[in-house]
């Protein structure tokens, strides 16, 4: 079951991580301009989570009826609920930063910048959830940081023709800020799990995800209200280059696909750790790169190629370190188990 959950969450995360930026860019490429509306779509698909929660409730109720116990629909307790509310609010602002970056950057460039968040996740994980640093982790952090710095060079060659240099640079910096903030949020979710003071289950993870997205959506709705999005959207839909009907299709698909990203990310935190979740997000980088070049014919300059190579080098370094550490840990555990009978025999003598 544990392995199946990991695989399912990886698949869901892959769909959301690769499809989310592409469909968001589709909105902006065809006449969309409302950043807060785009931010809202990142988390607006949270009602979908009610479906698995409902089936989980039915299963628990059936089991509890056999034992004569009452069944609660929600399992979450106040301590974890407060943590989820806080993280949800922070996620709303982080989603805005990301949407702002996608509005002014090619998908391939934004994906490379987001890849650098693995370095920040490693740092935050070290301080927040005591994840140990290894030489391979440090090497990966350095390579990913250098890769992001290389990407910042010669940005004029990557700038879309309809944008100013200022818009591009602001988009670049805002995307970096989004990567740093999300790198902080992933270990924060893991810390919330550890401090929850209640048994964690995948049903509880779904509840946390729903609360996170609900609060993030509220932040986005407030932003939409202030920015005047509700008045502007009907006109924007009529002027959408792909047609008014496609405007709403893109919006619905965006909400569904992005929900897969967030659900997969926090699901992997539950099944493994925040760092593993961050690694999976980063590993999907080449796929997002290729899809952006295929569908949007984005330029792939030498700076992007060098940044991609450094990022992949960083991923391989980190993976090798984790595999080696896991192997050493298993060898150590086996050695300890093999030594137990000997000690018992010595004691008996």
From TrEMBL:
Q: Does the keyword Transmembrane apply?
A: yes
Annotated membrane topology is: Multi-pass membrane protein
Name the residues that span the membrane.
Answer: 35-59, 80-98, 104-129, 136-155, 167-189, 201-226, 246-271, 278-297, 303-321
Q: Name one GO cellular component term.
A: membrane
Question: What Gene Ontology terms describe what this protein does at the molecular function level?
Answer: purine nucleobase transmembrane transporter activity; purine nucleoside transmembrane transporter activity
Q: From the Swiss-Prot or TrEMBL record, state where the protein is found.
A: Membrane
- Record keywords, A-Z: Membrane, Transmembrane, Transmembrane helix, Transport
| Tree of life domain | Eukaryota
- The principal localisation class reads membrane
Q: Which InterPro entries match?
A: EmrE-like, PUP_plant
Family listed: Belongs to the purine permeases (TC 2.A.7.14) family.
Protein name, as recorded: Probable purine permease
Give the source species.
Brassica campestris (Field mustard)
């Amino acid at each position: 079951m544990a392995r199946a959950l990991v695989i399912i969450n990886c698949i869901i995360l892959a769909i959301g991580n690769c499809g989310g930026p592409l469909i968001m860019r589709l909105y902006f490429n065809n006449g969309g301009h409302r950043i807060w509306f785009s931010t809202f779509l990142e988390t607006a698909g949270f009602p979908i989570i009610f479906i698995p929660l409902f089936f989980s409730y039915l299963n628990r109720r059936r089991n509890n009826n056999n034992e004569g116990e009452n069944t609660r629909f929600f399992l979450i307790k106040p301590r974890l609920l407060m943590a989820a509310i806080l993280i949800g609010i922070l996620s709303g602002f982080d989603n805005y930063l990301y949407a702002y970056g996608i509005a002014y950057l090619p998908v391939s460039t934004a994906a490379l910048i987001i890849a650098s968040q693995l370095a920040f996740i490693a740092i935050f994980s070290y301080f927040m959830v005591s994840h140990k640093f290894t030489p391979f982790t440090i090497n990966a952090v350095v390579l990913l940081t250098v890769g992001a710095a290389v990407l910042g060079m010669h940005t004029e060659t990557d700038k879309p023709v309809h944008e100013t240099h200022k818009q591009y640079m602001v988009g670049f910096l805002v995307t970096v800020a989004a990567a740093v903030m999300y790198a902080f949020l992933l270990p924060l979710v893991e810390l919330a799990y550890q401090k929850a003071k209640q048994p964690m289950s995948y049903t509880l993870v779904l509840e946390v995800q729903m609360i996170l997205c609900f609060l993030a959506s509220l932040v986005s709705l407030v932003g939409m209200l202030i920015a005047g999005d509700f008045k502007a959207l009907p006109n924007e839909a009529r002027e959408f280059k792909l047609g008014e009907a496609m405007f709403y299709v893109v919006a619905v698909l965006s909400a569904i696909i992005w929900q897969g990203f967030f659900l997969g990310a926090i699901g992997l935190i539950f099944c493994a750790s925040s760092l593993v979740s961050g690694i999976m997000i980063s590993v999907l980088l080449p796929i997002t790169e290729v899809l952006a070049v295929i569908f949007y014919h984005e330029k792939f300059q030498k700076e992007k190629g060098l940044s991609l190579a450094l990022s992949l080098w960083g991923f391989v370094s980190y993976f090798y370190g984790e595999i080696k550490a896991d192997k050493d840990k298993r060898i150590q555990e086996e050695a300890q188990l093999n030594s137990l009978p000997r000690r018992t025999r010595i004691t008996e003598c």
